[in-house]
Structures are given as structure tokens and as C-alpha cells.
């Protein structure tokens, strides 16, 4: 895996850095502003409609994967766009141990969930300015990580 020794994963290699950490594609706006704790709505929609990974921005492969808090997995609704399974694990290997505001979360979840699915729905907000969400519609597996 590229950069594994220094904490940068293959999916995050080459991504812009903020605070010494790479920023996922979905957390960078089109003007170049970076924020680990915020999913950029335009990027999230692009990930869904173009079927690209929210971490590395490459074309998605199956199984499509979602990462978020265990509460998101329970509700079947995720804030972070779809990602590759490898990108999900690599991002959690990097960000979960340090806690904090990462992967579109203002607070780190107590327990992270990795959900693989055969497909998903983009759930558009009912009010202007609200975020989009993602609903896995045929869950294959859910795993939890502390």
C-alpha cells in the first residue's frame, strides 16, 4: 500500500493536506477549501451521480461501501458519500485512532460502522441548504470498529 508506513493510505495518497493529514475528495470544495469535518454537498452529489469514491475520487467498484457512526448504520442513512471498501478501511485506520473531526463528522463516533451494499439511493434534502444523505438499499455486511 502506498505510503502506509507514514500513515497516508493508497486512497488518500496525493490528496491535499490539512493539519498534516490528507483530506478526502468529499471534504474539499471546488475552490480548494479543505475541512475534514464537512462533506461538501456538491462533491457528495457528484460522488453519487458519477459513481466515484468520496475518498479517492476514482470510479467505484463493488461492493459499494459506506462509513459512518453506528447510529448512521442503524438508521440506514449516511452523511459521507460512497467509497471503495479498501478506501473505507484505510481511512478508518488513519482517522479513527486519532478521533476528532474527520470524514465529515463534527465529532468522532464512539463506534464506526463499515457497511457494504449492492446499491444505494441519494436522498436529497427537503429544505434548501440541508445536506444530502445516502441510503444503502441492499446491505451485504455491516462491521463495527471502535
Describe this structure in words.
The longest helix is centred in the middle third of the chain and has 11 residues, at 85-95. The radius of gyration is 14 Å and the shape is globular. A three-stranded antiparallel sheet has the order 3-4-7. The protein has a two-stranded antiparallel sheet with strand order 1-2. The protein has a two-stranded antiparallel sheet with strand order 5-6. It contains three helices and seven strands; from the N terminus they run E-E-H-E-H-H-E-E-E-E. The chain is an alpha+beta fold and 146 residues long. The chain has helices at 41-50, 70-75, 85-95, and strands at residues 17-18, 21-22, 64-69, 112-117, 120-123, 133-136, 139-145. The chain has one domain (4-145). A hairpin with a 2-residue loop joins strand 1 (17-18) and strand 2. Mean pLDDT is 91; it is low at 1-7.
Question: Strands, helices and their partners?
Answer:
Elements: E1 17-18, E2 21-22, H1 41-50, E3 64-69, H2 70-75, H3 85-95, E4 112-117, E5 120-123, E6 133-136, E7 139-145
Antiparallel strand pairs: 1-2, 3-4, 4-7, 5-6
Rg over C-alpha atoms, rounded to the nearest angstrom: 14 Å
**CA-CA gap between termini:** 23 Å
Lateral arrangement of strands in the main beta sheet:
3-4-7
Helix content: 10-25%
Per the principal axes of the C-alpha atoms, what is the gross shape? globular
Oligomer: single chain
Strand content: 15-25%
Mean pLDDT: 91
Number of domains: 1
User: Helix-strand pattern, N to C?
Assistant: EEHEHHEEEE
**How many β-strand runs?**
7
Low-pLDDT parts are 1-7
Per DSSP, the total helix count is 3
Query: Helix/strand/pairing class, anyone?
Result: alpha+beta
Largest sheet: 3 strands, antiparallel
